[in-house]
Design a protein that fits this description.
Layout: E1 6-17, E2 20-31, E3 35-39, H1 46-53, E4 61-66, E5 69-72, H2 78-88, E6 91-94, H3 106-115, H4 122-135, H5 151-163, E7 169-173, H6 181-198, E8 202-205, H7 209-215, E9 218-223, E10 226-231, H8 233-239, H9 243-252
Parallel strand pairs: 3-8, 3-9, 6-7, 7-8
Antiparallel strand pairs: 1-2, 1-4, 4-5, 9-10
Helix pairs in contact: 3-4, 3-5, 4-5, 5-6
Length: 253
């Protein structure tokens, strides 16, 4: 992998909430076809990183580049708000909670993003949404409202909705943490298929160590707002050099 094939590039990223510095100078790339799993304790800055990549949280300092759209931290201007909208066209994001629109069917939830774009073709959007629901194993649930779906099914609809805008990268913020254990596998299976069959670049915050070991190309361990260690799953799981990372892994494995 080279610098030229980076889909996401994070340089010198700092994020403050008031006086609290949550991210302290993060440098990190995500390359084409790569799955990066971000590990660390609660409060280490993992989710904040994802939210900064998508500018749901504004970086205090540093730069974020996604598919050639490069933005700096700091205050939003009118021009910067337009640039953020452009950057978000390249990013799909799936959250801990499913955030589906309860008044809409599964199909309508998947269609809503593309239809918000100027000049969208409704028939083509519907066809694509049905294909995505099939892809996540929910072709027979298109007309169901979220209340009629299990948590795992709702999260799979959320994944289809994120894919509907044809993003260049997918961000997953602990996508299985709100699910019962028996529903977790169906969501992880969809994510694995995205990685191995579609080769979608993915940044994943998760405590699912089996997924991290099997699917990740690279693990990144966060501690108190910095990256302490990163490497292949074998390197991090079996040959970690940092005591803090070893203590974390011993606790979760």
């Amino acid at each position: 992998m080279t610098a030229n094939d980076a889909v996401v590039r994070v340089e010198g990223l700092h994020k403050y909430f008031g006086d609290l510095e949550v991210l302290r100078g993060i440098d990190m790339d995500l390359h084409k076809g790569e799955v990066v799993v971000i590990l660390g304790r609660s409060g280490s800055g993992k989710s904040t990183l994802l939210r900064c990549v998508n500018f749901l949280d504004d970086p205090t300092q540093g730069t974020i580049e996604v598919s050639g759209v490069k933005l700096s931290g700091g205050h939003r201007t009118r021009r910067k708000r337009e640039q953020i909208r452009n950057l978000r066209l390249h990013v799909g994001m799936v959250f801990q909670q499913f955030n589906l629109f309860p008044q809409m069917t599964a199909l309508e939830n998947v269609m809503i993003g593309p239809l918000c774009r100027k000049g969208a073709d409704k028939a083509a959007t519907r066809k694509r949404a049905l294909q995505l629901l099939d892809q996540v194993g929910l072709g027979d649930k298109a007309d169901q409202h979220p209340i009629r779906l299990s948590g795992g099914q709702q999260q799979r609809v959320a994944i289809a909705r994120a894919l509907a805008t044809e993003p260049d990268v997918m961000l997953f913020d602990e996508p299985t943490s709100a699910l019962d254990p028996e529903l977790t596998g169906e969501v992880l299976a969809v994510m694995k298929a995205l990685a191995t069959e579609v080769h979608m670049p993915m940044m994943v915050v998760t405590h699912e160590m089996g997924f991290a070991r099997e699917v990740a190309d690279r693990l990144v361990f966060f501690h108190e707002g910095v990256i302490l260690e990163q490497g292949s799953p074998d390197q991090v799981f079996n040959h970690t050099q940092h005591p803090e990372c070893r203590r974390f892994l011993d606790a979760v494995l």
